[in-house]
């Protein structure tokens, strides 16, 4: 079931589609999808600003530990507000498709 709510963004009314009543419910649904797929030792990583709440519900259902990772946004060359990736300790995620559309490659982002 989908819930709808109105919110105010940039002075314009928009309608946002909400798939879950809250983040705990989203985590519970994710945990149900994972319960038969996770075998052996596991660790759930949550990210701040909402992800930790989802991750906590997953860890509770799966009985595995929770840790928090704090990633940093990687901005596009010449447009730092446009995210083309994220980095955290030992992890790099780059949106190569977005970079190609902008005419860059990962080496430009790393520089």
Walk me through the structure:
The longest helix is centred in the first third of the chain and has 12 residues, at 23-34. Helix 1 crosses helix 2. A hairpin with a 2-residue loop joins strand 6 (79-88) and strand 7 (91-94). Helix content is 32%, strand content 35%. It folds into 2 domains: 18-68; 72-110, no CATH class. The strands form 3 sheets. It has a 3-stranded antiparallel beta sheet with strand order 5-6-7. A two-stranded antiparallel ribbon has the order 1-2. It has a two-stranded parallel ribbon with strand order 3-4. It has 111 residues and is an alpha+beta fold. The protein starts with a strand and ends with a helix.
Topology:
Blueprint: E1 3-9, E2 12-18, H1 23-34, E3 44-46, H2 51-62, E4 66-68, E5 72-76, E6 79-88, E7 91-94, H3 96-102, H4 106-110
Parallel strand pairs: 3-4
Antiparallel strand pairs: 1-2, 5-6, 6-7
Question: What's this entry about, in short?
Answer:
The protein is of the alpha+beta class and 111 residues long.
Structure characteristics:
111 residues, alpha+beta, 2 domains, 7 strands, disordered N terminus
Per DSSP, the total helix count is 4
Low-confidence stretches: 1-5
Determine the strand fraction and express it as a percent band: 35-45%
Order of helices and strands: EEHEHEEEEHH
Compute the average pLDDT: 84
What's the number of structural domains? Answer: 2
Radius of gyration: 18 Å
Structural class: alpha+beta
Shape: elongated
The tally of strands reads 7
**Largest beta sheet: what is the strand line-up?**
5-6-7
For the biggest sheet, the summary is: 3 strands, antiparallel
Please bin the fraction of helical residues. Answer: 25-40%
Distance between the termini: 45 Å
